[in-house]
Amino acid sequence: MPPSTQEFAIKLGNGLPLESGEAARRAAFPVRAARSMWWFARRKPLGAIGAVIVIAMLVMAVFAERIAPFGYDETIRGARMRAPGPTHWLGTDNLGRDMWSRIVYGARVSVTVGFATILLGTVAATAVGVSSGYFGGGYDICVQRVVDAWMSFPFLVIVLSVMAVLGPGLLNVILALSVIIAATSSRVIRGATIGIAANTYVEAARALGAGHLRVILRYILPNVMATIIILATIGLGGVILAESGLSFLGFGIPPPYPSWGAMLSGSGRTYMFRAPWMALWPGVAISLGVFGFNMLGDALRDVLDPRLRGASGRTT
User: 41 lies in a domain?
Assistant: First the structure.
């Protein structure tokens, strides 16, 4: 006599009913996540340090009002260019503004510009790279010649030209930098797409009558997603550095809102010898931000790329 439905469910759940087995798997998810994070920290210590820095930047950006003891443009009477101490951890600037508070609010600018630029640039790069690599032929040739012409110009010249036309501002910085990200990342995504489109399962899907949109969404994009995530994570550090450079040159976020590059360029450079902490801490913040995103992106590349996982093949 065939087993009953309840007995079959008990077998599937390892001695528990099907609903209980699903609940047990859900309850064990935090343990598995903790083990994966411990494995990641043990195998990729620099990547773990980068992840901690990135999380700290995100927390500072989201909860800047609660973390910063003063406003980013609040002038404290009698505290002009005060050295770091118990009241002002990182000192004050030439206008009596708390440096720690301005560093915290500056993290919001860097995180906003970084993630918005990467999101916009990665979406454009994915659309161009996937379509170019998948369809090929004359379309691929025309698109790649446009990309080649765009990449032949120095990036700084392109960004400064766009900013000179649009003017300084948060949205304009994001648009100018996303154009550069889209041009450089599309070439890498195109190469990954060409390799995936040549696989037999893609040819089988076409033979079964699947349309181009279905093949791209079901077979191409999921396999290219690891490359996209790696490019986005590594590109965040470069975007933060580029935004700081634009702010240093006066094309970034206009005052009084703090930007790490603008803090270096203005009063930080003017009073560097009288109050060196005014230039030291913004430089340290930029360096840590770029280091954190680069190390995290490099570790994710080793984990997500099957050719770089190592002999165990274990992933997080």
Answer: no
Residue 233 lies in a domain: yes
| Domain-located, residue 266 | yes
d(CA 130, CA 227): 12
Q: What is the pLDDT of residues 109-151, one digit of tens each?
A: 888 888 999 999 999 999 999 999 888 888 889 988 888 888 8
Q: Is residue 40 part of a domain?
A: no
Q: Which residue has the tokens 């007995």?
A: 7
Looking at the predicted structure, is the pLDDT value of residue 2 above 80? Answer: no
CATH of the domain at 248: 1.10.3720.10
Q: Model confidence over 164-185: pLDDT tens digits?
A: 787 777 888 888 888 888 888 8
**Total domains in the fold of the chain:** 1
Q: Which domain holds residue 200?
A: 46-308
